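> run fold Pyridoxal phosphate homeostasis protein
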Amino acid sequence: MDLRSRLADIDARISDAARSAGRDPSGITRIVVTKFHPVDLVQDLAGLGVTDVGENRQQELSAKREAYAGDPVRWHFIGQAQTNKARAVRRDADAVHSLDRTRLADALHAARANDADVLDVLIQVNLTEDPGRGGVAPLGVDELAEHVAATCPSLRLRGVMAVAPLGEEPAPAFERLASYSAGVRTVVPDADWISAGMTGDFAEAIAAGATHLRIGSAITGPRPVHG
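> ok
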């Protein structure tokens, strides 16, 4: 299938999953992950009506945003962020899905361009028992939310993000994420985004309340060989 057909196929599957879960498909944002693809693909996606794209690496995000000249899109940074890259991430991302520690929150806040500059952020939650995986441990979610709300006024806390663990069915993992989302909303009531679900598990994510899906190669096609 070509790009248009792949996009239409995924959107139809998203709509079917939403209806099966008793949800309105219009309440779900599909983010197309363009990792390792050239900026021309972003141009092509925008021409097909895509409004949200995702990048995993700061250098790639920055290069594509600078080179991009198409219809307006929102750039979502979904990879692990280093504090020393906070200024570049802040400059080039419209939303950061991978906030996982207070030092990063402080660095992103300090990197604001001016007092009117506001960045959407989501707290990434580690749904595994492995502390080496990205994300804050579940017991630290509310504390991080409170830190952002109390000390980082230029960060607008939108909700939570997670990746389903390997070796576990995604449905119960996403149900846990939904419970952590509810905890965050006791701190910031309108932080109702749940960024969860990729190509293989977006139906389970939608059933658990996901509002933002991160879909890559099922739409973009195989990633170019990257050395």
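The first strand starts at residue 29 and ends at 33.
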